[in-house]
# Entry
Amino acid sequence: MERHPNVLVTGAGGQVGRALQAALPGHRALTHEQLDVTDERAVLDAVWDCDHVVHLAALTNVEGNVAA
# Structure
C-alpha cells in the first residue's frame, strides 16, 4: 500500500489555510490558537513526524486600511 506524505499546515485559520484544507483532506492543520509559531518547543513537537510543512501564517492589512 502506498504511503501518503504526512503534511502539516500552520496558519490554517486564514483564507489560504482554509482553502488548502479543502484541497488536501486528511492532512493536519493548525491555527494560530492551536500552535504559536514563536514557541520553539511547540513547533518542534508539532513537526517532529511531518514529511512536509506548509507555513501559511501571515499578517494582512497590517496598517488597518480598508481597500477601496
Summary: The first helix runs from residue 15 to 23. The mean pLDDT is 85.
